[in-house]
Amino acid sequence: MFFRIRIKSSIWSSFYAEVYTADEKLVYIVEEETGSLWRKIVRLTKFRTALALKVFIREVNSNCFYLFTRASGFSSNYFVKDGFGKTICEIKPVGMIIHSHYDILDEYGMVIGKYKYYNPFVLGPQKGDVKDNAGNVICEFEWERPGLLKSPRECKINIDKYERPWDIISIVVPILKAFGFEKR
Question: In whole angstroms, what is the distance from residue 153 CA to residue 144 CA?
């Protein structure tokens, strides 16, 4: 399956993106919770990485949604939950300062896969992939940069294993990389 993520928001506003199929059909809407006036003011500063993150991913056809969260206080563990609050997976960094990859844990805390990106810096090609424990590629993605010093706005995702829970994980992982561009 081939998908494309298009970021529609600016770096100064709440995150908003849309996910399309290869034939330009809208499948998911990704929207960050806006929060209070205090949160909006802090978002304009470099301290926005200390804010808790709550992103809603809504399927357009079925109206079911997922929640992508991070706790406040410079936490680096991310959780993907379904509409009922049940944890689908946890995305946990491995490494100290520059994370070499992220482990993907299931709801019981067992490692089911790894997310690896190939360039930890903002400049340069922004590619990554998700592999299961057997080393099989689940998805590969690449963010397209509109200009040398501009933040990427569009991502191509090629999903090889389109089944639960890998389908939503394959959408969340490029969004996680996009948060790195915007220092969220």
Answer: 7
Distance CA 56, CA 29 (A): 8
pTM listed for this prediction: 0.86
User: pLDDT tens digits for 136-157?
Assistant: 999 999 988 766 666 778 899 9
How many other CB atoms are found less than 10 A from the CB of residue 55? Answer: 24
**What are 85-118's pLDDT values in tens digits?**
899 999 998 876 666 789 999 999 999 999 998 7
What gap in Å lies between CA 93 and CA 171, rounded to an integer?
18
Tell me the one-letter amino acid at 184: R
- Give the Cβ contact number of residue 57 at 10 Å: 20
- DSSP states of 79-141: EEEETTS-EEEEEEEESSSS--EEEEE-TTS-EEEEEEES--SSSS-EEEEEEETT--EEEEE
Q: How far is CA 95 from CA 18, 98, 101, 106, 179, in A?
A: 31, 6, 8, 20, 19
Beta pairing partners, 115:
102, 130
The whole-angstrom separation of Cα 81 and Cα 56 is: 10
d(CA 96, CA 87): 25
* Class for the domain spanning 2-181: mainly beta
